Amino acid sequence: MNFAAQLFYSSYLSERLERLYSPRLALKDSEENDPFWQREELHLGPSQPGASYKCCPISNGTVGRRPTLIEPERLKDFGEEELLNGDVKVYDTKVVGGPEIMLMDPPKTRRVSEFRIVPRPPAQYLRFEDISAAAFRIQSGIQKTPCTYSRLSKQYGMEIYLKKEHLHYTGSVKERGVLYLLTSLTQGVIVATDCNFSMAVAHHAVELKIPMFVIMPSCVSSPRLRIYRDYGAMVISYGSTGHDSQNHARHLAKENGYLYVEEDESAAYLAGLGTVGMEIYEQVPKLDAVVVPAAGQYGLLAGTAAAIKHLNSQTLVIGVEPEGFPLLLQSLKTDSPVKDMHSNPNKKLYGDLMERSLGVNTFQLSKKLVDKVITVSEEDSLVAMLRFQEFERSTVDTEGAMGLAAILAGQLPELRGKRHSFLNNLELVRQCVDRALVLDDRVSKFSVQLGEWPGDMAKLLDVLSREDVECVVETRDKSQSAQLRKTLSDRYPSIFWLDR
């Protein structure tokens, strides 16, 4: 744009500013004499019709310059006027930059050892969300067992509730963990140990239409093998020992793409076992304590404790172990799972005891969540079994009776007057072992009245000895039993009393 055009544009801009900002009072006199629409400075074209800007040449002076619309006395409102009295003021322009931005110095290089590493808390192995998910998943395949008030409560001065896990199809609480474990599998499974865990796997695998194989040594009895077949599993007898059958099972699983399963401490299995704790909390209001047997696999104790402590941290969780195999108690003393107990528990009473049954995760859960661990003797467990038969009309194994055995031995005085639940893995042996043997024609009970003639007892004993049978004598009470033992020992010094 040339200078002349700049001058014209400046004049036009001044007119616009005057119209916007000049007060009406300043223009009042001029408007009365010369209306604003007739004023020459408002016409953007030439001053005369037919004329052009060329007749009045534009120069750097007053000639041909259009008067400004800004009043001189108002110049102070707009600053200095560039075009004043026909002269042009020239200003030197100085470009001033913005404030200088100072960059920070680059960070110094530091060694990794100089940084403070804050360790993250370890992930929780078994969460209550896992147990809740397991409860939802297995609800269609596992019945909700009752937790009933026991007749033993009044006798021992406390409210005792029995969680009757023997009512599961296989008679074991382990069905809970097994079913939740199997729901995540797609391939077939193989087991090679004769225990409640294997029976639960056989039953639920067949129900879920998962191919199921059972590899057992030849020493397993035929009735036990028949149970697995009745569940629908394919049973194969291999080897003479459990070690042989287990190695063969692992080989078959690897060759055929099956999964060899045995009782362990997987999160899914423990979550399934923990569902029993949820049910106890729902069924027994204002619960003070839960007593859990801890013989054999300790996942039941850990899973139950995880559920109970999440629902109410004030509820006590007590684990009970056999006196001859205190694996958890010794592990807590050494602060790590014990691998070698140097103990030989009674296999007839505690057949499922295994040193590898207490894993690292199960131990950590028990250490964190279990309030107390106690041991009971075999004698107390056997007496507790008898009490269950007399008061609850059910036959239990020694593991299921250990909770009551602890009360019989006076090891739980803090529970007197309190409300607690026994988590009993009860095994009802077809109403009663003795009754079953009678029906199977393997036990015969009789009573005979001997005459006063000499030789009658000798003749009876002679008949029994020729038939090669064992005689069992039932006495009225302990005093009669002691008297009978003394009499027979005095009369027959060579008599041999069988172990209890």
UniProtKB/TrEMBL annotation:
<dbReference type="GO" id="GO:0009097">
    <property type="term" value="P:isoleucine biosynthetic process"/>
</dbReference>
<dbReference type="GO" id="GO:0006567">
    <property type="term" value="P:L-threonine catabolic process"/>
</dbReference>
<dbReference type="GO" id="GO:0006565">
    <property type="term" value="P:L-serine catabolic process"/>
</dbReference>
<dbReference type="Pfam" id="PF00291">
    <property type="entry name" value="PALP"/>
</dbReference>
<keyword id="KW-0456">Lyase</keyword>
<feature type="domain" description="Tryptophan synthase beta chain-like PALP">
    <location>
        <begin position="139"/>
        <end position="416"/>
    </location>
</feature>
<dbReference type="InterPro" id="IPR001926">
    <property type="entry name" value="TrpB-like_PALP"/>
</dbReference>
<dbReference type="InterPro" id="IPR050147">
    <property type="entry name" value="Ser/Thr_Dehydratase"/>
</dbReference>
<dbReference type="InterPro" id="IPR036052">
    <property type="entry name" value="TrpB-like_PALP_sf"/>
</dbReference>
<dbReference type="GO" id="GO:0004794">
    <property type="term" value="F:threonine deaminase activity"/>
</dbReference>
<protein>
    <recommendedName>
        <fullName>L-serine deaminase</fullName>
    </recommendedName>
</protein>
<dbReference type="GO" id="GO:0003941">
    <property type="term" value="F:L-serine ammonia-lyase activity"/>
</dbReference>
<keyword id="KW-0663">Pyridoxal phosphate</keyword>
